[in-house]
């Protein structure tokens, strides 16, 4: 019997790489998607050796028009039936909205919102026809609140969270066997915490961050168990709960002050 297949976007490092490793350990053949072919090829070789699974590398820039559709057609034409889709690819920009490059922010919206929505639509339809499948959309704890100096990023993740929760209810009501989950990590020890390409650096104490492996493990486990909204870590669960206590106005002021104080 053939292995199930998992597709992971943004698979070249961070949480995406951990998703691929965990799914490979669970016996899934892998489709690894990112922009850096050499890095993906190296990862594919390592995961095949470690887990004995097949790895397919697809180079794609999901900020480009029709990139999601091209990715889907690529898997279809190669008879790669995706059983588990992980929409992990994402971009982040910190700083004052008026000072950040608008083209970079538009690319962020294209990846975080448009590509994720298109891939979800394409693969949800394919899975629905087979009455089985899992989709894990990586949102963020940032999606639970407005965040000044990270406003477009937080807004894109708010979209992912709301979209995924609503879609999960739709698919559950349709009883078509497709599970959709939103993963909402907080501060995670990845290159996103210190990347000059994304504007200012946010200075966060290491003890406030979870490891990428911890986040990915809970995301996969809870999605497979059918959970709609996944907030890893007790501190993050507490923060998510707090967002329901304060008014949006008060919360925005508090978060804005924190970010400006800790943004280098």
Protein described:
With 264 residues, the protein is of the alpha/beta class. It has one domain: NAD(P)-binding Rossmann-like Domain (Rossmann fold, 3-Layer(aba) Sandwich), CATH 3.40.50. Strands 3-2-1-4-5-6-7 form a 7-stranded parallel β-sheet, sandwiched between helices. β5, α5 and β6 form a beta-alpha-beta unit.
Query: What amount of the residues lies in strands?
Result: 5-15%
Mean pLDDT: 92
Radius of gyration: 18 Å
Please, how many helices? Answer: 8
Low-confidence runs of at least 5 consecutive residues: none
Helix content: 40-55%
Strand-pairing-aware structural class: alpha/beta
N/C terminus separation:
53 Å
**Largest sheet descriptor:** 7 strands, parallel
Adjacency order of strands in the biggest sheet: 3-2-1-4-5-6-7
CATH architecture: 3-Layer(aba) Sandwich
| CATH level 4 superfamily | NAD(P)-binding Rossmann-like Domain
H and E string: EHEHEHEHEHEHEHH
Number of strands: 7
- Could you say which overall geometry the principal axes of the C-alpha atoms support? globular
Number of domains: 1
Which class in CATH terms?
Alpha Beta
CATH topology (fold) name: Rossmann fold
């Amino acid at each position: 019997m053939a292995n199930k297949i998992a597709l992971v976007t943004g698979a070249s490092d961070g949480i995406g790489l951990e998703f691929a490793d965990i799914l490979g350990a669970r016996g899934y053949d892998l489709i690894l998607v990112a922009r850096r072919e050499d890095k993906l090829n190296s990862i594919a070789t390592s995961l095949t050796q470690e887990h004995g699974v097949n790895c397919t590398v697809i180079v794609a820039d999901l900020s480009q028009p029709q990139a999601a559709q091209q990715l889907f057609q690529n898997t279809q034409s190669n008879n790669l039936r995706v059983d588990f889709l992980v929409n992990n690819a994402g971009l982040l920009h910190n700083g004052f909205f008026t000072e950040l490059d608008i083209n970079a922010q538009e690319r962020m919206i294209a990846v975080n919102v448009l590509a994720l929505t298109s891939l979800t639509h394409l693969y949800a339809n394919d899975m629905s026809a087979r009455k089985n499948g899992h989709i894990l959309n990586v949102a963020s704890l940032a999606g639970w609140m407005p965040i000044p100096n990270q406003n477009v990023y937080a807004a894109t993740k708010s979209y992912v969270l709301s979209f995924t929760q609503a879609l999960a209810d739709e698919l559950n009501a349709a009883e078509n066997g497709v599970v959709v989950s939103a993963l909402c990590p907080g501060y995670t020890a990845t290159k996103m915490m210190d990347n000059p390409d994304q504007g200012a650096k946010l200075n966060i104490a290491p003890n406030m961050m979870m490891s990428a492996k911890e986040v990915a493990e809970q995301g996969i486990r809870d999605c497979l168990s059918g959970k709609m909204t996944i907030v890893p870590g007790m501190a993050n669960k507490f923060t998510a709960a707090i967002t329901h206590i304060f008014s949006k106005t008060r919360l925005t002021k508090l978060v804005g002050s924190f970010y400006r104080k800790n943004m280098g």
